Amino acid sequence: MSITLERVLYVEDDADIRTLAGFALKAVGRFTLEACASGQEALNKAPGFAPQLFLLDVMMPGMDGPTTLGRLRALPGLGAVPAIFMTAKVQPQEVERYKALGGLDVISKPFDPMTLSASVRAIWERRHD
Amino acid sequence: MIDSASMEAEARDALRRMRADGVRRLAERVADLTTAWKALTLRPWDAATRAGISELASGAHRLAGAGGTFGFPALSAAAAPLELVLTGLADSAVPDGERVNQAHKLVAALTAALEAGTGAIDEPPPALTAPGEAADPVLVCADEAVQPGLAALISNLGYAVLRGEALPPPEQRMATAVLDAALPDALRIARGLATRCPVILLSEETGFEARLAAARAGVNAIVPKPLETNELADWLDQFAGHRREASLSILVVDDDVVLAETYAMALRQAGMEATSISDPSRVLDAIASVTPDLVLMDLQMPDIDGIELARVIRQTRRHMSLPLLFLSAEQDAARQIQARRLGGDDFIVKPVDLGRLATVVRLRAERARALRAIMESDSLTGLLNHGRFKERLSLELQRCRREGGIVSLTLLDLDHFKQINDQHGHLMGDRVIRSLARSLQKRLRRTDVIGRYGGEEFAVLLLGTEAEAARAAIDQVRRRFTALPFETDSSRFTVSFSAGIASNAGLDGPREAETLIEAADAALYAAKRAGRGCTRLAGED
What keyword terms does UniProt attach to this protein (chain A) (predicted)? Predict the structure, then answer.
């Protein structure tokens, strides 16, 4: 049976987007959320937070989403945590590329804050199929 | 239990406030970026300046993301290329005049985009349909007793259907509404729907007065009763936007990697698919792999210039009608005429206005595509004609040989078509043919190649598809098509088709296309012999 998703680690470099999506995930989706401004911050916070899911912006200065994911998964106990990427204008072949990089799926930006949580949950539920 | 409706309303409110804050912050950020850019342009070109520009590039990147999120797509459209230009500039050892110019324009475009605004921060941003997510449904407002089978018919045409006899709740999204004028209060319902989606009215009254009343209620189209399926289908296609057209594909050739990618990005922001190359000698390979609708190229390149490149492209017959657009800093009229003589279609003067670039490229490419579609298509169905289909087949088989890959060819033939013509007349026969063409277009992927192969015979090439999977796809089309009723004043009938499928697995050699066609044809013949209305694979008994 599927385990309910509660703990989400979210990484997004833009403060305004982080606030909006963070609120949407907490208030609408009822998730327990750790929102980070960079890949480095995520690496610092992830071990103590024990996330069930990573939600990662792809394009970030410094460490991008796929790199962050690789390093997060190298941390003890986090090797099997599923991830969803967020990025602008996804073409079908790019979605495949992000899946190959270890993402369950891709959520395209701009996102609708009212339905963001539902999208995250739908992808989470599908992963057991 | 907490009242979830009021909780949602609260969340919506909070989100609205946050969005408003985000928009205010966008304005501040654009102002900050503009000021910082101006200050940097006054400084000498040194490491600190370049570091500052690199910092601005990051700012532009974040703006591109935030612009979309807070409902200013035009802001993103300027900020995304700005990031690229600034990154390129930060890497230059000397200040690069063209990039500085580009950056100037793009920075100004940020403010313009902000001022143009959206005014609609209450609305969620235009949500891109996520992969796998269904398109909006067609609302069918009709009394099933009065208009039986209407919902089923629209569903058979390939649309998701939502049924109702009154206005659906405000949050329900609809692609279009089909409304039966026989419903009580039909025009009042039309008025309520018209602000939300296009409305198609099915009506027995089609006189001027009735049309005027409908127009005043906001109705976009009237389809007379008794219903003509094709006419309804044409309107649904137009409104519900099952746009079959793949997006325009543009190839950009510029020896400057950053500029090439900047142009490509501006085109992508405008909804086109753009591929950029910086090595002109790769142009033929690139044309073969991306089959562009238009090539945009720099006229002055160091090793091979644009005119030479145009000459090379035009040496191939198939590329004779491919539009070529030059980017040129050149004011030299004589050289421009020389370029035109070699088939350059237009010039865009550098430094390029990226907004105008996208417009010019789109217009040219759309027109070229429309002309090509007319030249290559069958006049009744709009599908590829026999000759063009075989050409595409050869091309795809070549591509498979080069890159490895599988395709399945299906030949399909309407069953007992002659009887339809004899019993119901040729107009009905044409209608059946158009319906099958439409079913194929709707049910198959837009990358699949569909042609009208002969009178009542069609050919379909399914790319990247094994024979068994092709059978599943074709059988799905068959089930829907066979369920589609055709009506005349006196009768109602359905039509079936037979299909034969062969894949290129194990095929090789120069007569590959012919061999594949023969195999599919033999399978089609086997399907006919097995009693029609079925599919056979090559080599299957």
Answer: Phosphoprotein
